[in-house]
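Lecture notes, unit on protein representations.

Consider one protein chain, 235 amino acids long.
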Amino acid sequence: MMNRILKQFSFFAICLTLVTQLNSCKAVDNANNKQKGAAIGATGGAILGAILGNNVGDGNNSELGAAIGGVVGGTAGVLIGKKMDEEAKRIEQEVPGAQVERVDNGIVLTFDEKSGVYFATNKSNINDDSQETLDKLANIFNEYDNTNILVVGHTDSTGDDTYNMKLSEERAKSVTNYLTGKGVNSNRITTEWFGETQPTHDNSTAEGRSKNRRVNIAIVPDEQMIQEAQQEAGN
């Protein structure tokens, strides 16, 4: 009888240890996914990672993190997630070429030179093909209006870094101006640009450079959506 009790106790202890270890690993994974870089603090680090690759720990990105806002957890986070899932699905269906990622409480869209929003070499104007994409996107943004939008411009490392910074600024602002011209409230949009400083791919290859010449759009819940979710969750 005593041996049986000891065996049951040992089995329980092993199970408890395994559960604790698994939960600890999961917590670490979540922390790594959501809190990349000390400068980010409580903001959506995984969203920054999708936009900036391995450069999220740069202290210069704190302003970008503030624009994204904090990660909402618990039941409220689940409710927000369902709404963002719905919007992401609409974008996937209606905006061909957009790379759509659901990250944390938000959505990250990536448009490189081969997908949806195109810029001619050294140009920042929105051409006809890009207009078609942004028209569809603006319609969705206007329908799902309880979100904030972050537009971020990037270039590859070819050419002068000062010029690239200016070019990324002009391209990001072109996208923002086009969206606001289609009725998207300018108060919802934050525009940032990083030139060649935030590559997500290898600039030593042609394919990598084409991926680095990109515009990212992050879509995150606004304060109204967060408050409504928290009220519904009983927080």
